[in-house]
Amino acid sequence: MGKILEFAESLWKGNTDTFTHHPISAPFGVEQVTQGTWFIKGFANTIVRETGNGLVIIDPAAVMDHEYKFRKVRSVTALPLHTAVFTHGHIDHCFGVADYRLEAEANGWPLPRAIAHEDLPRRLDRYRQTPGYNAAINMRQFQGGAAEVSFPAAFYYPDITYKDRLSFSVGGIQVQLQHALGETDDHTWIFFPDTRVLCTGDLFFWCVPNAGNPQKVQRYCQGWARALREMQAVGAKIMLPGHGWPIIGANRIEQALEDTAVLLESLHEQTITLMNQGAPLDTIVHTVKAPADLLDKPYLHAVYDEPEFIVRNIWRLNGGWYDGTPSHLKPAPESKLAAEIIELAGGVDNLVRRAQELARAKDFRMACHLADWAYLGSGKNPDVGRQTAQIYADRAAAETSTMAMGIFTATAQEMRGKVPQRKKAGIPSVLESQDRRAKKSHTE
Ligand SMILES: [Zn+2]
Predict the structure, then answer these.
(1) 424/338 Cα distance (integer angstroms)
(2) pLDDT of the chain along its 444 residues, tens only?
(3) Which residues are placed with Cβ below 5 angstroms of ligand 1, an ion?
């Protein structure tokens, strides 16, 4: 057993955990998981299958690690790429084909093809319209605003798309593709019947499903749960997720898929029940609870996304943008509201002092309301900003999820007046940054 499978084993047994080793962090590398099949652990994972007529590669690379992934593949097999499958159009999954095209052209080989769900090209079109927004939100999500980040402007569009399911054969090896709504509207999971290898894409991630992501487009809690149920039915023996590590053995795979489905079904049912009772979003967000025993499972810690954010996405999919709080329908500008509250509080110093008291008592939810009002209502005064920044920094240190840590850390940076510039290409040092963050969250 190599270091990746050994690590997966110790994670499953609870000898280490995802608070220490985030699913998108090390150990990285390439390892054979069964006959003709390699698993490459990176920020996102790549799966390589040898056939009699070249390679089938699931998610060839991320925008920032395509050279690394190409080298890793070429360290274990010299076969040309025949077919790439993109599990979805996120930029940590759908890059890398260009390297194999160049290689094929240089060697006079047939050009490879890429297959994806039919909604994937529309996602790439959207990305080309919104590079500035996507750079900004990824900077917050992964770097906490601490470094420059960019978003690519050019993409490799799939050569072939499909709608519900697609089955094909390469060099005598059957490959089954199934569409699902989940983290995205363009998701595909893949099953190889001969080896019973299941490639989940991001439908399994070694943490609370990323169905809530605060800064990104709609995600699909109920569709995700259905996809997990469908994957349970194929009887896989090896499960290779889009992030994190392999799960080996039918019983473990069944348990991991079952628990993840139950978590999502519970959040969905609780939320829909309250919506049907006419509850406002505020009541729903503070009432719905994820089953605590499930969040304790080694593969379901809230280290990336959080149940609370998933509840908001269930609301967004089934309801309108009005959240049920009447003043939110046509609100005053936040800076004016903040100035009014400073006036009522008898000055900004009183508001800052109370915010600091609440933060010391670890009531960060309340402390940050007051911090926002103090900072905005003071016209983003730098002295006030330094004090409110500390409240956000303390809050970030107390969080477990990448989403919350990233946004709160970015807020602290902004309040300190440190706003990094966006770069034109590449996402530098994202792996190292996430490693540091994972270690930080464990030590605190
Ligand atoms: Zn991903």
Answers:
(1) 36
(2) 899 999 999 999 999 999 999 999 999 999 999 999 999 999 999 999 999 999 999 999 999 999 999 999 999 999 999 999 999 999 999 999 999 999 999 999 999 999 999 999 999 999 999 999 998 888 888 766 666 677 898 999 999 999 999 999 999 999 999 999 999 999 999 999 999 999 999 999 999 999 999 999 999 999 999 999 999 999 999 999 999 999 999 999 999 999 999 999 999 999 999 999 999 999 999 999 999 999 999 999 999 999 999 999 999 999 999 999 999 999 999 999 999 999 999 999 999 999 999 999 999 999 999 999 999 999 999 999 999 999 999 999 999 999 999 999 999 999 999 876 554 443 333 333 333 344 333 332
(3) 44, 90, 92, 202, 242
Whether the Cβ atoms of residue 304 and residue 402 lie closer than 8 Å to each other: yes
Cα 183 to averaged position of ligand 1 atoms, centre (Å): 9
- 47: enclosing H helix or E strand: strand 46-51
187 in the same domain as 76: yes
By the 10 Å C-beta count (0-12 exposed, 13-18 middle, 19+ buried), 371 is classed as buried
Measure 397 CA to ligand 1 centroid, in angstroms: 24
| One domain, residues 113 and 239 | yes
Give domain status of residue 91, yes or no.
Answer: yes
CATH of the domain at 357: 1.25.40.880
On whether both 244 and 348 belong to a single domain, the answer is no
Give the residue numbers spanning the domain of 369: 331-443
CATH, residue 142: 3.60.15.30
Compute, in angstroms, the gap from residue 208 CA to the centroid of ligand 1: 13
Residue 312 lies in a domain: no
Choose one of 204, 238, 263: the last residue of a domain: 263
Cα of 173 from ligand 1 centre, angstroms: 26
The structural domain count of the chain equals: 2
Q: Is 0.90 surpassed by the pTM of this model?
A: yes
Cα–ligand 1 centroid distance for 421 (angstroms) = 25
